Amino acid sequence: MIFDALQDHIQTEQQKICGFDVHVTSITSAEAGALVGLPVGTTWCIETGSFHDLFEISEAGECLREVLVPLLEPFQGETLCVCGIGNVWTVYDRLGPLTASLIPVHTISAAGIPSLFSSLLTLAPGTLGQTNLDTATHISALLQASGASCVLLIDASQAQDVSALSSRIDVSNFGITTALQGTALTKNSLGIPALAVGVPLVTKLACADNPQCSEYVMRTTIQEDVSVAAQIIAYAVLRVAYPTLSKDDALSVLALFGRDVKLPF
Predict the structure, then answer these.
(1) CA terminus-to-terminus distance, the chain
(2) % helix / strand / coil in the chain, to the nearest 5?
(3) Chain segment 108-126, per-residue pLDDT in tens
(4) Rounded mean pLDDT of the chain?
(5) Count H helices, E strands: the chain?
(6) Is pLDDT above 50 for 265?
(7) Given a cut of 50, is residue 41 above it in pLDDT?
(8) Given 15, 119, 130, 250, which residue has the most CB atoms within 10 angstroms?
(9) Does residue 9 lie in a domain region?
(10) Would you place residue 45 in the very low, low, confident or very high pLDDT band (cuts 50, 70, 90)?
């Protein structure tokens, strides 16, 4: 009986957006969320298939754009911060910083292209291991100083199984818990509404010779996967933030500014 009552607080829906399957899960109570390992809120899981096999990033980008529009439109005319979480020096953790670097907000603003927001900011604060600053405290201070009304967090996530690696994009309206450090980045910890885009790029598997230890596992195409995922997310953000940019315009921006992005390796 208790289980059945909790199930009433878990709603699932299957959608087809721009040709991609999107699984929507809404949790309305913390007790119900504990059953599926999710907090109260809604997640959208976009099944893109292997990033390595995607024919065009714009197709997946348009799907992500459709998911993000209703989440970001309530902040129209306000300040949005796109925050790339992660360490650019670690191949499976550089998704956030790389995505932020692909969105040339100052150049676009200087060109006079109208935006949905009064101001769009990008931020790549690094990790605790790099800065010796608590990630949530660091980000919340910067958000407060910038006057942001909402933050869109971009981060690599940890897959529950190998099949999900580099083949899915997750969106949530309740923030994230970072995959490696376990830091909660939410409205409570950051002080403003926190949306998130996560991509499963690593998973943990038990070591064959020692069940008590585990190793991070990723696809052999991880470098290309991260690049493709970053371009998809940056494309979607550009299309939401600057409604007058066409699909080709957004792709041109990525092609023009992406070539100047220098990765450590």
Answers:
(1) 55
(2) 40, 30, 30
(3) 999 999 999 999 999 998 8
(4) 89
(5) 10, 11
(6) no
(7) yes
(8) 250
(9) no
(10) very high
CATH number for 77: 3.40.50.1450
Instruction: Name the amino acid, one letter, at 69.
Output: V
Within-domain flag for 216: yes
Alpha helices in 48-172 (DSSP H): 57-72, 95-101, 105-110, 128-131, 135-146
pLDDT of residue 1: 45
SS3 (DSSP) at 73: helix
Is the entire prediction scored with pTM above 0.90? yes
Q: Tell me the two tokens of residue 19.
A: 């040709």
Is the pLDDT reported for residue 144 higher than 80?
yes
Residue 61 within any structural domain of the chain:
yes
Contact assessment for residue 201 and residue 95, using Cβ atoms and an 8 Å cutoff = yes
Judge whether residue 58 has pLDDT over 80: yes
Whether 64 shows a pLDDT value over 80: the answer reads: yes
| Number of residues that this document lists for the chain | 265
Q: Which helix (H) or strand (E) holds 257?
A: helix 247-258
Strand 184-185 and strand 176-177: the pairing is antiparallel
Strand 168-172 versus strand 194-207 pairing type? antiparallel
Q: To which residue do tokens 């714009």 refer?
A: 58
Residue 212 phi, psi dihedral angles, 5° rounding = -85, -10
Residue 229 CA to residue 154 CA, distance in Å, equals 11
Q: Is 89 helix (H, G, I), strand (E, B) or coil?
A: coil
Alpha-carbon 75 to chain mean position: 18
